[in-house]
Amino acid sequence: MKDLCQYGNRPEDEWEILPWIPDPRPPFKIWAKPEQIAPFFLIPHHPYALSLLLKISDGFRTEEFRRLGLIGNSEDWERLARGVIQEFEENNSGVDLFHFDSDEDVFCVYSQYIDDLMMLAKMIRAACADEKAMRTYLGKIEYIKLFWEGAPEGEPSVILYEVDTKNERLALRSIDIFMDGHTRNIPDLYEDAIEITPIPTVEELNAHVWGEEFHACIIEKAEFEAIWENRTYNGEIKGQCCRGGT
Known about the structure:
five-stranded antiparallel sheet; 9 strands
């Protein structure tokens, strides 16, 4: 791993000249408190720029990333940060304010716009407060396992959905799983549908928007793909493990 002060740093002649800032640029003040953004931390490059860093080896939110089908490396953190940046740019003036300088050891986003970078740092920390928030900013495909208690004969007891959270929560693929364990892959859930219906969130399903007989949980992409490819299911049919949560 290179020295932390190198992330987001450039040779002096490569920094952008910001005409509204005095030349030479005065030192800037860091007002974001460490405890507000931990385990992320700030590295100043006085007087030009500020970097926000996260050591990948800390394992921060790794389990949440894995449940979302990712691994929690720098590439995944950049993906989440881009989702936050998109929201930041929609609510504030200016584009192309932020740049990345990550590697396999460290996630790094930096900017010459010091106050904007500190605001972004707090937004990124808030964006990973829980898995639901992370999923929103990642623009992720979501995998849901839905249990149908007392399913009528001939209907699946378990249904797996691959949901595009950025496209009105429409299902890309689904898998019907029957009581005896045999499965049916459905590559286009809406092929013969009269009305296209989005897939509710796990929270909504567990609040019984589809009825008391349905409850659900999030699963990993790997589980969905394995069942899709193998066309067999050896898991839970009754779904007691999913009651009351995700």
